[in-house]
Write a structure and sequence with these properties.
Layout (H helix, E strand, L loop, with lengths): L1 H16 L5 E5 L2 E5 L8 E4 L8 H18 L4 E5 L5 H13 L2 E12 L13 E4 L3 H15 L3 H8 L10 E8 L2 E11 L2 E9 L8 H17 L4 E4 L5 H7 L2 E11 L3
Helix pairs in contact: 2-3, 4-5
């Protein structure tokens, strides 16, 4: 579970550090990775990686985060990996956050695989382009905003800048079918593992194997670049059967709580 937390947090820190208004810091028992963005999920608070917080300690961290983001006039989200709470705090987490007007936005299985199983059947193929130029950046954003149900401006604010796609840690991909961008995936290498994020396929193109194709292609390229066989992800309910077939196992939960909109 530690590798899931580390990769997830460092992915947010990478995004925040590439925005002029972004902020990456430690304060009052928190790790802040804030993109200062309209999309509140990217204005993130995390618990320190060596935590095992009690319920009162968790509440104090929430108050600290409220003060931090309130002073900046930002909507925000608290990302909590389950292993960083003691059992009682884990059971009470939802009620504690709700008492601070934080809504439970996601409860995601945290998954790890030390290697990927072979596919059970032949997969379709797509023309794959690595995200870099303006055309592929726009395509990555536009597929993502449809699949994750957010306004286009929110996704573009985070992923459209060219600076996001420089360096070797992150790699984004867009899959094209007959010239149309229909699928995406992003890998981020940190903590000795590859995190895979933003696996998305447009409605109408799903259940055809394109998501599995994009995952396998992205993970293979990351393995070639970084030599890492272990990978991590956070699964949606819809993606869980696919990831289990591919060899991922659940090692914990990632809980996300969002502040009320200002």
């Amino acid at each position: 579970m530690e590798s899931v937390e580390q990769n997830l947090r460092q992915t947010f820190e990478w995004l925040a550090a590439r925005r002029p208004e972004g902020e990456v810091r430690e304060t009052a028992g928190l790790r802040i990775a804030s993109a200062a963005a309209s999309f509140q999920m990217f204005n993130a608070a995390f618990l320190p990686p060596d935590s095992a917080l009690s319920a009162p300690e968790l509440e104090r961290r929430i108050v600290s985060a409220e003060v931090h983001f309130g002073a900046r006039g930002l909507d925000w989200a608290f990302w909590v990996c389950s292993h960083l709470l003691d059992p009682k705090a884990g059971r009470r987490a939802r009620r504690i956050f709700e008492a601070h007007r934080m809504t439970a936005a996601s409860d995601l299985p945290a998954m790890v695989a030390d290697g990927i199983r072979p596919p059970r059947h032949s997969l379709p193929t797509l023309e794959v382009r690595r995200v870099g130029d303006e055309q592929t950046r726009l395509a990555f954003c536009d597929v993502g905003c449809v699949c994750f149900h957010v306004p286009p401006t929110w996704f573009r604010e985070i992923f459209l800048p060219e600076s996001v796609w420089t360096g070797s840690a992150a790699a984004g991909y867009v899959g094209y079918l007959d010239g149309e961008p229909i699928a995406t995936a992003l890998t981020f290498f940190a903590g000795g593992v590859v995190g895979i994020y933003n696996v998305a396929t447009l409605p109408g193109r799903r259940r055809k194997g394109f998501a599995e194709f994009m995952m396998r292609m992205s993970l293979e390229r990351a393995r070639e670049s970084h030599g890492a066989a272990r990978s991590i992800l956070q699964s949606t309910e819809q993606g869980l059967p696919l990831y289990t077939r591919m060899g991922y196992r659940t090692v914990g939960r990632v809980l996300v709580f969002a502040s009320e909109a200002r």
